[in-house]
User: What shape does this take?
Amino acid sequence: MSYVSLYRKYRSQSFEDVVGQDHVTRTLQNAISAGRIGHAYLFCGSRGTGKTTVARLLAKAVNCEQGPTPTPCNQCAACLSISDGSAVDVIELDAASNRGIDDIKEIRDNVKYPPMHLRYKVFVIDEAHQLSDAAKDAFLKTLEEPPAHAIFVLATTEAHEIPLTIRSRCQQFDFRRGSVSDIAGRIRYVLERENRTADDSAVDVLARNARGSWRDSLSLLEQVLSFTDQHVTVDHVNTVLGTVDEDILFAVSDVVAQGDASAAFDLAGKLVHEGKDVRELIKAIAGHFRDLVVASVGAGQDVSVKISERARLFTKERLVELVEIFSSAEKDLRWNDQHRLVLELAFMKAIFNSAPVDSGTIAPAAQPVRPVQPKTAPATYSAPPKPRTEPRLQETPVKPSARPTDAPIEPAITDQASSAPTSDVSLIRTRQMWPRVLKHIKEVQRKAPLSGMLREAEVSSVDDTTVYLSIDKRFGFHIANIQQSANLETVSQALEAIMGKKMRVKVVVSQGVEPQLPMAEEIQEPPMPEPTGDMVQDVLQMFGGRILEDIDDENYDPWKET
Assistant: This one.
């Protein structure tokens, strides 16, 4: 007999043998015992969770010679033919390759005829979401009222792509991903049946890399068993699967905790030269810091001593930040083929984001220092400021006497403020950032009309809690809309996103300067000439014209050559 893969060899042959899906198997068994067998079922779940296996078990249960029974015998001709795939009355269709309306028409024609050998005709449609829209529509009537001898089982990994018209005609069962402990138990069971042994750490790594898939766990185990002679160790698993050894992860956490950038670069270079898959490495590092988070909050029940020791080197907030850094780096690898660079940048972010900054050695960008002035703005805003007609201010040293008197005094910019520019809300910086605020409202908050109306506004003054926007009274429609509470909150959120500080927004109506046009009675018009009685002369005199040539109309011949 030819070799059979482990996931096929150890496929569950009874409902009791199915692991991790008790909510599905128990419901089906009770329904079969009570004689309430449905005509259509929808099995949803990720790959390798047992959807097709349970569909075949259902076909056995309803067609067993001793049934319908919740415990098929696996010995009668019906059970054996279904197990080896030779039953003509159990039709399995792969919707990924048979997704057209013609394939559904074939099912509709076939379902009318009674089964040849079994009690029920069972149609198992894998990847049902891959059916075309026309095929799904053609399938509706048959699915709603099939013959009494027909049962449909639809299996899919994308339940949201199944139309509600189909889902409402089926009994839906959601298959759960296997837990690490359950999958590890299944791996140990298969190892025992295969007369092989393995370290607990090796089994744990296999179970984790299966990511909830029972089939994947046995496929990975099969690879490792082919690599080793008898006993399976964690080194064998890491070598075959390309996973990261636990010692490397502890070395990474030690380097980050110590803030040693040089050691981080050396470690990254060593791992790359050893041929480690950078994507798997970064994913493992993110998972390692996630384990440290679990240990730091006391949620892990079987946390190792090493994990607990490393978790004490970081604060909870720092660990969460590290998980986000390496998770973001893993996403960047999808669009960046410079894997070593992405790994090194992730290490640098992990180290320098937490390193204390010495303001005496790391100088901020060069900015002028203004003299500290007492804040003289009144507690209540009394009169609206006049509209500014001078050019926009540049960030240059300003003498106290040169400050305009119609706006509150700006807080002085010091070295401490310049080291954290994201929270600087001075008048000059707010005016400089105002175009970015408008862009944020338009593109991020998707409020293009509001952004357009705000282009008529100008930042007139700023105090500790409020940004004042000056708008000419001629734009009454703009003022009425901007002053709505929802729009003011939108502007406030945009200011917080760009400036780094929550600020209120107030609208000030300014008195626009309108052009002074002369009154109608003040316009001096030239006197009209007195009419002479000769129409031609009157027109010439009125418009200042002259006669170029006087033609005798009576003797004029237009066809005569001159």
Notes: The beta strands are 40-44, 90-94, 121-126, 150-156, 171-174, 197-198, 231-232, 457-462, 466-472, 504-510.
